[in-house]
Amino acid sequence: MIGAYSSSHLERRQGGGGNNNNNNPNTNGFNIVNGRIFTPGLGIILAPQPNTPMGGDFLHIAIDVSGDGKLPVPPKDISDPLTQVFNFTMFLTSISQQKNFTISNITTTTPPLANIMDQELGQTVKHINFEWPDCLVGDGQDQDGSTARGDYNITIHQNFRLNGSDHYSIFNLPISVTNSIPQFPGADQLLTKPPPGPLNANGGRMNCDRLNNPMIGFGELVESVNNPPGQPFQDIAIETTERNGGGQIGDPGTANPNGEIGNGQGNAQGSLGEGSSMRSASGRYVDVLVVAAITTFGMSLA
Fold it and tell me: Which region ranges are annotated with the description Disordered (predicted)?
């Protein structure tokens, strides 16, 4: 099996047990602003949108890992005692199909299984291209149980620190695997960056059993999370250690609504031709007359 989904993925970075979503009711609504899907963690999903019918050669996921531009990304140093991302792992899960496929779990150095933070170095938005496994090949809904097509969640696990406290969150983004998926991936995907994967030894789709993991019960998932007390960015202002990487110079100024705009009166009546490099209009006429006299009468100025 590639990338086992073990209980170690569910361990919280901070001690204490039985928090049950911080002892608050579970919430499953989506917080979407201008197409950006905010999660309980620092990741912001850009694609796909919830409940999108999916297919094609591979599943494409785009996620902002920079805390909406507030946090550095590798190769810069991302360590911060106040706020930082530790890692992301992703799975494609379906209760109806009893499938739990590994998308990315930091088990190799090859995308998409490699550490998402280390892919596309320097980019704040990471692109994960997951090659559909062979049991999802087909078109439309599964009619006879011969495939594993149907409703799935892109399940995103986040380890992160927010304002000095460590957290662990799980977020489900529902999609439906109902659009056409060909048996053999197209050759043009070889130009895609990062390259889609994983692939089998022949460059084709992986067998589903090699990517599948045991299903984790909902109760165990709830016990594993340690969500922040609100949604980062919107409910909770993000605090970071001061860095020297840019930003405003100096403290904020003071408003002066009654102040004058400018101190000088200005002078819109500048004279023409006062500089030594300029000649007056009358001077130009004299030059013309002298040249005309030389031409007409053969006068010499020597």
Answer: 1-27, 242-278
